[in-house]
Design goal:
alpha/beta, Rossmann fold, Dihydrodipicolinate Reductase, domain 2, seven-stranded mixed sheet, six-stranded parallel sheet, 10 helices, binds nicotinamide-adenine-dinucleotide
């Protein structure tokens, strides 16, 4: 696909699972990309994605792909426990990075990664993706236009099915609903309540279904407090059964200010497919159902052999940032990814210890 020259950049995708395959496809469709290299530890996955996306190179060794001088930008799309090593390597090689959420699983690793990136003058972004869902993006615009005046209290919930949770835990048994799923809501809330400093969190969890995974909670609810006395309530559940028709995710969000309120229903109950022909769930295609709320796949949807939706827009935004050298206004930074991780870790700590936890957790940055 060599069209380098027309100010095109080279892109590497590390990890060719569900998400890496989408990043590679969206990159291959972007006219700003002149070179594509893909990598997975599992050769058959790297080959399959390389074939579909007509990549210039594939490998099972991320160093080989990242080292290629054609490569300017790297997607770290490995499982959540495997982000750190390849991200650090890309930062040391001076390549721009988009790292999938959650940034990493440990705060000290996050701080070290950001430090290495800063030392090498490298831009890191975090792939929270939902900022690019049109309704969440335009909500930010309404807030900037002053329709609420300020956000003084807020509510956000996010549920995924047990099948999605099982697939996450089977690759990353030390993750939790907060770190892996609530992370999207925490990012949106910090974005919407920009300028406020989180000072403490109180949370409660229950663990039954996923106890076998290092006592992973099934559900967690938290109150996050800010320095000006405002707060938000955030909740996550991994409890909906695998047959729940929002086959990946369901979200709801409400923001209240002195001037008004803004309410977003992202439950997808407005777009229903019912069929005698079994419908495969988007993230866990082995799960078949007869009623599905379409549009509940977080990255987006396939239609007419193209990929549409927030992950396409986010991928394009990252590529545009690297091509132009101008940061995209909706793209979360690595530091924002670190702050979200800190809050989700504090939420889990509060639920474990049964007490309010002060923020920041560590003085790492
Ligand atoms: N933004 C979103 O909407 C969204 C949705 C789902 C998942 N995610 C995130 O995307 C990431 C990947 O999730 P997924 O569902 O694609 O997982 P996955 O298990 O399908 O894919 C991960 C791939 O990484 C590969 N891998 C692991 N270590 C590697 C290494 N060192 N070098 C090369 N390849 C390696 C694995 O072999 C696997 O194929 C996770 O961080 C997850 O939380 C984001």
């Amino acid at each position: 696909m060599s069209n380098k020259g027309n100010k095109a950049i080279g892109v590497a995708v590390i990890g060719c699972g569900t998400i890496g395959a989408l990043r590679a496809f969206c990159s291959s469709e972007n006219s700003g990309v002149g070179y594509l290299g893909v990598c997975d530890l599992i050769e058959s996955k790297a080959r399959a994605v390389a074939d579909k996306c007509k990549a210039d190179e594939w490998s099972t060794d991320y160093k080989k792909i990242i080292d290629n001088p054609e490569v300017d930008a790297v997607f770290i799309s490995t499982g959540e426990a495997d982000h750190f090593d390849s991200a650090v390597y890309a930062a040391q090689k001076g390549k721009a990075i988009l790292i999938e959420k959650p940034l990493v699983l440990k705060l000290d690793e996050g701080a070290e990664l950001l430090r290495i990136a800063k030392d090498n003058n490298v831009k890191i972004f975090t792939g929270f993706t939902q900022r690019f869902r049109r309704r969440f993006l335009t909500a930010k615009e309404q807030l900037l236009s002053g329709f609420l005046q300020s956000v003084d209290s807020a509510f956000g919930k996010i549920y995924v099915t047990q099948a999605v949770a099982e697939s996450v835990l089977s690759r990353s048994p030390f993750t939790t609903p907060s770190i892996n799923t609530l992370t999207y809501q925490v990012d949106l809330m910090l974005w919407y309540m920009e300028g406020k400093k989180p000072v403490s969190v109180y949370a409660k969890s229950v663990s039954n279904i996923f106890k076998k995974y290092n006592n992973a909670p099934d559900a967690t609810w938290a109150i996050l407090n800010f320095d000006d006395g405002t707060f938000c309530t955030l909740g996550v559940s991994w409890q909906p059964p695998k047959q729940y028709p929002a086959y990946v995710c369901t979200m709801e969000l409400e923001l209240f200010g002195p001037n008004g309120m803004l309410s977003i229903d992202d439950s997808h109950r407005d777009y229903i497919l019912a069929s005698a022909k079994p419908i495969p769930a988007a993230y866990t295609p082995d799960v078949l159902m007869n009623v599905a709320f379409l549009g509940s796949a977080m990255p987006g949807d396939w239609a007419l052999e193209k990929y549409w939706g927030p992950m396409k827009s986010e991928t394009d935004a990252f590529i545009e940032s690297v091509v132009t050298g101008i940061d995209h206004p909706a793209l979360p930074t690595g530091e924002q990814g670190y702050r979200v991780l800190e809050i989700t870790l504090a939420i889990d700590k509060s639920a474990r210890e049964g007490k309010e936890i002060k923020l920041p957790l560590a003085d790492n940055l």
